[in-house]
TrEMBL record:
Organism: Parasediminibacterium paludis
Localization, UniProt: Cytoplasm
Annotated RecX third three-helical domain residues: 106-152
Annotated protein name in UniProt: Regulatory protein RecX
InterPro entries tied to this protein: RecX_HTH_2nd, RecX_HTH_3rd, Regulatory_RecX, WH-like_DNA-bd_sf
Domain of life, source organism: Bacteria
Lineage of the organism: Bacteria, Pseudomonadati, Bacteroidota, Chitinophagia, Chitinophagales
Length: 162
């Protein structure tokens, strides 16, 4: 039976500075990392507050970076982004504030582009199947049902005008 060597609080602090230094982290994620190093709650709380004081951890900055990355790179919708941030235990205030960083014009353009790409990839499908599969795809991406319906209606109108 092997025992895992418990790290000292100073070693843990150095590891966490590196952990938070190369990528924005949520408080929850950092807390879990500290527990995985074998530290006790009292030490974890002290180290978390120290990381916050030294600006290694900043939930607002994390939330904005998270929203930006998930929208611009992964092209997720607001619903999925919000759900994921709730899983990271980000405060609702920071979620709301970060969501405001999404430009509405970019959001609608991304939704329309994804809808058109999916729609065009289903050319061999019947109309209703095409509509259902496109809607399902966009719902999985986390876009709002009303916006999805509008995007599909726009595609339908464009195809009628051709």
């Amino acid at each position: 039976m092997t025992f895992k060597k418990q790290v000292t609080t100073e070693e843990a602090l150095q590891k966490l500075k590196h952990f938070c230094g190369y990528q924005e982290r949520s408080h929850y994620e950092t807390q879990q990392k500290l527990y995985s190093l074998g530290l006790y709650k009292k030490d974890v709380d002290i180290l978390l507050s120290q990381l916050i004081e030294e600006n290694y951890l900043n939930e607002e900055r994390y939330a904005i970076a998270f929203v930006s990355g998930r929208f611009k790179i992964k092209q997720w919708g607001r619903i999925k982004i919000k759900y994921e941030m709730q899983q990271h235990k980000v405060s609702s205030y920071n979620i709301t504030k970060a969501m405001q960083s999404i430009d509405e014009t970019d959001y609608l353009a991304t939704l329309q582009a994804l809808a058109e790409k999916k729609w065009n990839s289903l050319k061999s499908e019947q109309y209703l199947n095409r509509q259902a599969k496109t809607t399902s795809f966009l719902l999985q991406r986390g876009f709002e049902p009303k916006l999805i319906a509008a995007a599909i209606a726009k595609i339908r109108d464009n195809s009628k005008n051709k």
